[in-house]
Specification:
Distance between the termini: 23 Å
Strand order of the largest sheet: 2-3-4-1-5
Number of domains: 2
CATH superfamily of the largest domain: P-loop containing nucleotide triphosphate hydrolases
Radius of gyration: 20 Å
Shape: elongated
Helix content: 40-55%
Structural class: alpha/beta
Order of helices and strands: HHEHEHEHEHEHHHH
CATH topology of the largest domain: Rossmann fold
């Protein structure tokens, strides 16, 4: 989780943070997307996967939306779901080009396998020319296969991405969804859910105060829940407004 924009005192042990999953994601207006992903995860749990049950638009999904709308959480959730069933999985992003090379070396073998494998691609809008070419080649193999699933996310709809035309067209071949930012009530619901997942009890005035005085984007708010959890354990104190103010006090 990115905490680079948080105050220095947030550099706490976050190793106990729950892994991203579909269960700890608040769908908000993204119900159709989450429903589609849940159905896919259920299909992976079947003892055998029939190729006839895997049309392209069940295996190829692109979603897009503004920063903080849950794009990366959902990609991580699909990777973690694949890990749970022992499926091969590969996470790609623009910052780790070596991972793309390793995946391309294995694509032919993955296409021949009779069991599901999962690829996720984050920040499609930031791919350079070399990685655009790699994704194009990967998608060609996914299209011809029956058991490779690919999930991709970016900041804009395929037609509006500043990428070469043939890749923009390819991205739209599967299902396309838009992820939406949560409103304030939904943010509070999501933060309460995250706190419960950590066994953290917040006093009722904490979350409304944070939304009015602190960062309003979900990545930073979720990072703060982690920091409060760690600070509460460290100080052996309940999470009340005075504790929150103390944590946020510049040092």
């Amino acid at each position: 989780m990115n905490t680079s924009s948080l105050p220095r005192q947030f550099a706490l042990d976050l190793s106990h943070t729950p892994k991203s999953s579909l269960e700890n994601y608040l769908p908000g207006k993204d119900f159709a997307l989450v429903s589609a992903l849940q159905s896919l995860c259920k299909s992976w749990n079947q003892a055998a996967t029939s190729p006839s049950n895997n049309p392209l638009n069940h295996r190829w999904i692109y979603w897009w939306g503004p920063e903080g709308s849950g794009r990366t959480h959902l990609l991580e959730a699909m990777t973690n779901a694949a890990e749970q069933i022992g499926a091969e999985n590969f996470s790609l992003n623009p910052n780790e080009p070596v991972s793309w090379v390793h995946l391309e070396e294995q694509m032919s073998a993955l296409a021949d396998k009779g069991t599901p494998s999962v690829i996720t691609v984050d920040d499609v809008d930031r791919l350079d020319d070399r990685l655009v070419g790699a994704l194009f080649r990967i998608l060609n193999i996914v299209q011809a296969s029956k058991n490779i699933h690919i999930f991709m996310a970016g900041k804009a709809a395929p037609a509006n991405l500043e990428l070469r035309e043939d890749l923009r067209t390819r991205l739209g071949w599967g299902l396309v969804f838009q992820t939406q930012l949560l409103d304030d009530d939904e943010k509070i619901q999501a933060l309460e859910q995250a706190a419960r997942a950590r066994g953290l009890v917040l006093s009722p005035d904490v979350l409304p105060w944070l939304l009015n005085r602190f960062y309003r984007d979900m990545p930073n708010l979720m990072a703060l829940i982690d920091a409060l959890d760690a600070y509460s354990l460290e100080t052996k104190r309940a999470v009340t407004l005075p504790l929150v103010r103390e944590l946020l006090q510049p040092k």
